[in-house]
UniProtKB/TrEMBL annotation:
Pathway it works in: Carbohydrate biosynthesis; dTDP-L-rhamnose biosynthesis
Any one GO MF annotation of this record: dTDP-4-dehydrorhamnose reductase activity
Function noted in UniProt: Catalyzes the reduction of dTDP-6-deoxy-L-lyxo-4-hexulose to yield dTDP-L-rhamnose.
Record Pfam families: RmlD_sub_bind
Natural source organism: Clostridium collagenovorans DSM 3089
InterPro entries membership: dTDP_dehydrorham_reduct, NAD(P)-bd_dom_sf, RmlD-like-bd
GO biological process, one term: dTDP-rhamnose biosynthetic process
Record-stated family: Belongs to the dTDP-4-dehydrorhamnose reductase family.
The name this protein goes by in its record: dTDP-4-dehydrorhamnose reductase
Keywords associated with the record: NADP, Oxidoreductase
Domain RmlD-like substrate binding: residue ranges: 1-281
Lineage: Bacteria, Bacillati, Bacillota, Clostridia, Eubacteriales
GO cellular component: cytosol
Length: 283
């Protein structure tokens, strides 16, 4: 199977590349970072897709700096919205399956229970709005699509909450973390495995794919310190005390209903996945 991965140098992209390489000759993978393929350039996207003719495109490219999106609205729109549109149109031309990675930020966070794939969206940030419009373009322009909604993602490559907490914990011995935002920590390894399972099927549609269970950022930080054995005091604060430029969803825990109904949900409890991740990076 010929697979093209965009955003291949990021957290999820690099995890997918490593996982695919472990399968030997089963997959023929084309690795493309932002330097190799600017997904916002429709002409270039068409040229690459029509020339390489992949059977599957996995779009991991996104402008994910949530607060920066509030300032750089045009850039966020180009990458998150037009980039998704360009890939969808090109994939449909060659009959390729498109896996498009979405986010929990497409919800307003005002719910009181875990969100399912059919729940009404209502993003409050530029990041969430541009990602949602990108999702809509994928649905409209590519018949063979998987939209994968993820949340609180961490992996071995790049910056993420786990690395930040470990660094601050070691440097300062104390951290302040919000305890009134709830979500699902998600390890890229588990996410990548489910994406590879999906592309072997024709079970197209929208999927939530997050770690099992939910917690606050405060709970998440406490477990990071515990599992990494860092002597650090974690203080709980409110979102009002810890103001950010972009509004974050207060409750955006996702329920993996579509996975359970199709290929099966084997996403691990978030604590188990986090413990393994920390052990792996120690090695």
């Amino acid at each position: 199977m010929r697979i093209l991965i965009t955003g291949a140098n990021g957290q999820l992209g690099s995890e997918l590349v490593a996982l695919i390489n472990g399968f030997g000759d089963k997959y023929d993978v084309l690795v493309m970072g932002s330097r190799e393929l600017d997904i916002a350039n429709s002409k270039l996207v068409n040229e690459v897709i029509l020339s390489e003719r992949p059977e599957v495109v996995i779009n991991c490219a996104a402008y994910t700096k949530v607060d920066d999106c509030e300032v750089n609205k045009d850039l966020a729109f180009r990458v998150n919205t037009l980039g998704a549109r360009n890939l969808a149109i090109a994939c449909d031309k060659v009959g390729a399956k498109l896996v498009h990675v979405s986010t929990d930020y497409i919800f307003d966070g005002e719910c009181e229970e875990d969100l399912r794939e059919y729940d009404i969206t209502g993003p409050t940030s530029v990041y969430g709005k541009t990602k949602l419009m990108g999702d809509d373009y994928v649905r409209n322009f590519c018949r063979s699509h998987f939209i994968i909604r993820v949340a609180w993602v961490y992996g071995k490559v790049g910056k993420n909450f786990v690395y930040t907490m470990m660094r601050l914990g070691k440097e300062n011995g104390v951290v302040n973390v919000v305890d009134d935002q709830i979500g699902n920590p998600t390890y890229t390894k588990d996410l990548a495995l489910h994406i590879l399972k999906l592309i072997e099927t024709e079970e197209y549609g929208i999927y939530n794919c997050t770690g099992d269970g939910r917690c606050s950022w405060y709970d998440f930080a406490c477990k990071i310190m515990e599992y990494s054995k860092i002597d650090c005091k974690v203080n709980a604060v409110t979102s009002e005390e810890f103001k950010t430029l972009a509004k974050r969803p207060k409750y955006s825990a996702l329920d993996n209903m579509m996975l359970r109904a199709t290929i099966g949900d084997e996403m691990r409890p978030w604590e188990e996945a986090l413990r393994e991740f920390i052990e792996e990076i120690k090695e």
